[in-house]
Design goal:
The complex is a heterodimer of chains A (131) and B (274). Chain A has 131 residues and is mainly alpha-helical. Helix content of chain A is 55%, strand content 0%. Chain A starts with 7 loop residues before the first helix and ends with a helix. Chain B is of the alpha/beta class. Chain B has 2 domains: 115 residues, Glutathione S-transferase Yfyf (Class Pi), Chain A, domain 2 (Up-down Bundle); 131 residues, Glutathione S-transferase Yfyf (Class Pi), Chain A, domain 2 (Up-down Bundle). In chain B, strand 7, helix 11 and strand 8 form a beta-alpha-beta unit. Classes of the chains: A mainly alpha (131), B alpha/beta (274). The structure holds iron/sulfur cluster (2 copies).
């Protein structure tokens, strides 16, 4: 278990996403709004709680940032005007930039996907899962 | 009415029909869409981290190329990226200086950035559109599917009320259709998860399609090629009545009495891939 300290990721997150997780009062409206929670291991409001507590390692291992579809519904509903979609992007980027490299690349596509998927889908996926 | 037009890659490939039907309709409506020269892909998703400047280069280059004239796109994702890039250029001086210096352009966030539906509503007017309809879609039960990118973030997109939008319904009414409302019309279809986590997209799409079917809709209307793809390809098999997926422009052309021969293709040829 990572120690409960202000982590590096937390500091970078504040700077680059313009979001301060400590503003969140854990009402969980974001989680109620999120359309893809069924596939997440941490709910959106739990991600913020982990950020507040500086549980960086746990966040880097979580499936949730990769399930987030950047639909911006959480941000639209948050009574504290926090943009959780930006924070999810921050966690993805922290991983893509420093740790494991790309999550998804052209080699992961099946040939029938390549012939069917719209260009927009491919560009979006590469932008989100690839550096 | 004259506009600069940014197509984006998907409209030259998988979603060619959206461009073809819009162009045919625009001509009849007296709307001139002048395609930008040498445009490039907008990047499809707006970079959500403020230091991701490289991914801003393409949309800012596009915005600057419009030369202060109104800039129109049809794809909801292109519109979202361009509009958000414009807002960032207005708000963040440091990012603006770095990006415009690199591109060697002079741009500080000016010009209207519009989705074609906004042109129809705000510049032409749905009343005027209704007068120009030749073959009203009478008796067709159609439902709007907004998805995410046209509506959110609402403060920046300023497209419509994010929780209770009406623009696509008003558009359908102007075309003479019978409008059906479905509760999932502003829910996400799963976006790019259909590429990486297909099961998740299956779940979101099935909810949207089932709710449309229960509401009695025979078709869902979208302005986003990725929504179109997901809605068409990711729904669970269901024995109920099929729900067809249309681009808004297909119905527009139809109601204006136009038949558009598509050179495009549901099957992609490999050309126009990113
Ligand atoms: S909706 Fe906002 S305040 Fe409520 S838990 Fe989510 S992020 Fe925190
Ligand atoms: S942006 Fe991500 S976390 Fe927020 S509601 Fe959408 S999918 Fe859920």
């Amino acid at each position: 278990m990572a120690s409960i300290t202000k982590s590096r990721m937390l500091e970078e997150m504040k700077l680059q996403s313009g979001q301060d997780p400590s503003c969140c009062y854990q009402c969980a409206k974001c989680s109620a709004a999120c359309p893809v929670t069924a596939a997440m291991d941490l709910l959106p409001h739990q991600v913020i709680r982990y950020l507040q507590l500086g549980l960086e390692e746990e966040l880097l291992e979580s499936r949730t940032p990769w399930i987030c579809a950047s639909c911006f519904t959480c941000a639209a509903r948050c009574p504290r005007d926090l943009d959780l979609a930006r924070m999810m992007e921050g966690i993805r980027l922290a991983i893509l930039r420093r740790r494991e490299g790309n999550k998804f690349g052209p080699a992961d596509l099946a040939p029938e996907q390549l012939s069917k998927l719209p260009q927009q889908a491919l560009v979006s996926a590469f932008r989100k899962y690839n550096k | 009415m004259r506009y600069r037009y940014f197509p984006g890659c998907t409209l030259k490939g998988q979603a060619k029909i959206m461009e073809e039907t819009t162009m045919a309709a625009a001509e009849v409506l007296g709307i001139e869409l002048q395609e930008l020269a040498d445009w490039q892909c907008c990047g499809a998703v707006f970079p959500l981290y403020e230091d991701e400047l490289i991914t801003l280069l393409s949309p800012v280059r596009t915005l600057a190329a419009a030369d202060g004239e109104p800039l129109v796109s049809l794809c909801a994702a292109c519109h979202n990226v361009l509009k958000r890039a414009q807002e960032l250029m207005q708000r963040n001086e440091e990012a603006r200086n770095k990006v415009t210096d690199f591109l060697e352009v002079d741009y500080s966030g000016e010009g209207r950035v519009l989705h074609f539906l906004e042109v129809l509503r705000d510049d032409l007017g749905f009343d005027r559109l209704a007068e120009m309809v030749k073959k009203p879609l009478t008796g067709r039960k159609l439902a709007a599917y907004y998805g995410c990118l046209l509506l959110r973030p609402a403060k920046i997109m300023q497209f419509d009320d994010p929780e209770n939008p009406t623009i696509i319904e008003d558009f359908l009414k102007a075309l003479g259709a019978e409008v059906v409302k479905t509760p999932y019309r502003t829910e996400c279809c799963g976006a790019y998860l259909s590429v990486t986590e297909e099961n998740v997209a299956r779940d979101t799409v099935s909810k949207i399609i089932d709710s449309a079917r229960r509401a009695g809709a025979e078709g869902l209307i979208t302005a986003c090629p990725l929504c179109h793809y997901n809605l068409e390809n990711c729904a669970e098999e269901n024995a109920g009545k099929p729900v067809k997926i249309f681009y808004f422009s297909e119905l527009l052309a139809e109601a204006l009495g136009l038949t558009v021969e598509s050179g495009s293709a549901e099957e992609k040829t490999g050309e126009g891939s990113p």
